[in-house]
Amino acid sequence: MANVKPKKHLGQHFLEDMQIADDIVNAMTQHGGYKEIYEIGPGTGVLTTRLLKDERYKTTVVEIDTESVDYLKDVVGLPEDQIIGGDFLKLDFDKIAPHPVGLIGNFPYNISTQIYFKVLEHKNQITECVGMIQKEVAERICCKTGGRTAGILTILVQAFFDVEYLFTVPPTVFNPPPKVESAVISLKRNNRKELNCDEKLFFKVVKQAFSTRRKTLRNAMKPFGLPADFVKKDIFSLRAEALSVDDFIQLTEEIEAIRNS
């Protein structure tokens, strides 16, 4: 069978550096004690072949490209029951994996941000995630409090996961080479089982705060219709990027209290 051709519309850039592939797989630590790993977008199986050698867990791949699915079965030799042919973003982990699992992959660039929102959606199933994504997105997710690259994902991901920027990957190790640098980051579920506020409201507060990121919270949060005395607090003179996860949780608690009063 011929090699799989990278498809632009799927955001495919196949990794060709075997050492980097080993480094990505070796970054998995089985945090949370899971026995299953799900690999997103395996392509030609560079990561898959290494995962299959690890007897600690069972590897299942999720691949939307039918050409890749055939290649994984016929050339890599992956059993059919370890292949999910379809869109990762449409998977219901509550049904297919109600227990803890790990997630890994050279994530398709065009859906990498959506993948992390999916991880958040199933944060009680996905206890560890090691992914290669665009460097810009990686820096945003791993940004520290006050960093200029902070964004919605920074706060939402770090509310539930310990994040670590592992290493940068140059374009030259891919086929075809992307136009940007990539990076590998690690997420490990933290000890925060639940927030001290309404989670849906927390997400709304964070998204609204960053909706006009160059404005102070006093302007950005106007759609919430908060009392004039409340928005006089010092925190509202700051921009969203200056707030920590705990700051956003406390702010949401206070907004929730106002709404319930």
UniProtKB/TrEMBL annotation:
Listed CDD domains: AdoMet_MTases (cd02440)
Keywords, sorted A to Z: Cytoplasm, Methyltransferase, RNA-binding, rRNA processing, S-adenosyl-L-methionine, Transferase
Any Pfam family hit: RrnaAD
Glycoprotein recorded as keyword: no
Superkingdom assignment: Bacteria
Subcellular location as annotated: Cytoplasm
Statement: the UniProt record of this protein carries the keyword Cytoplasm: yes
EC identifiers of the protein: 2.1.1.182
GO MF term set: 16S rRNA (adenine(1518)-N(6)/adenine(1519)-N(6))-dimethyltransferase activity; RNA binding
GO CC terms: cytosol
Catalytic activity line of the entry: adenosine(1518)/adenosine(1519) in 16S rRNA + 4 S-adenosyl-L-methionine = N(6)-dimethyladenosine(1518)/N(6)-dimethyladenosine(1519) in 16S rRNA + 4 S-adenosyl-L-homocysteine + 4 H(+)
NCBIfam families xref list: ksgA (TIGR00755)
Role of this protein: Specifically dimethylates two adjacent adenosines (A1518 and A1519) in the loop of a conserved hairpin near the 3'-end of 16S rRNA in the 30S particle. May play a critical role in biogenesis of 30S subunits.
Stated family: Belongs to the class I-like SAM-binding methyltransferase superfamily. rRNA adenine N(6)-methyltransferase family. RsmA subfamily.
PANTHER family linked: DIMETHYLADENOSINE TRANSFERASE, DIMETHYLADENOSINE TRANSFERASE-RELATED
Name the record gives this protein: Ribosomal RNA small subunit methyltransferase A
Originating species: Flammeovirga pacifica
Gene name for this UniProt entry: rsmA
